[in-house]
Design goal:
Layout: E1 3-6, H1 8-16, H2 23-30, E2 35-39, H3 40-51, H4 61-67, E3 71-73, H5 77-85, H6 93-105, E4 110-113, E5 124-127, H7 142-145
Parallel strand pairs: 1-2, 1-4, 2-3, 4-5
Helix pairs in contact: 5-6
Length: about 150
Amino acid sequence: MERLLLDTHAFLWWISDDSILRKGAHAAIVDPRNEIFVSAITAWEITVKRLKGKMEAPDNLAAMVDEKGFAHLPLTFHHAELAARLPRHHKDPFDRFLIAQAQAEGLRSSLVTRTSRSTGSGPCALEAQPAAPPVRRDAWPSAALGFPT
């Protein structure tokens, strides 16, 4: 059994069209022996970017986590303290929190993420994105995600 933390990209891809994920990431997520977590940080990132008009995404994220059978991972003071101590090459605050949570919670020492950006500070990445050009988050149409506009 493995305990995996989905990053924001992986979670959005999973709820929209899991064929975007690499085979290894897909297999790990569907394996019933694995426990899959989605962080409150992911909800924060999606909501902030949706409200700024940078992406379209559903507003019922907690229900979607439940619907997919994933576990909620709340943010704790310990997570925040660990995030503050991470090396400065992790500049994105959302990524910093996810990396800290993966470290603190022993989530297979791994994030299911779009890139291996966490290398060198603890968690290694189980890459979710195919070996194609990166998808711009702000370019995701609502229809592609299956959500009403």
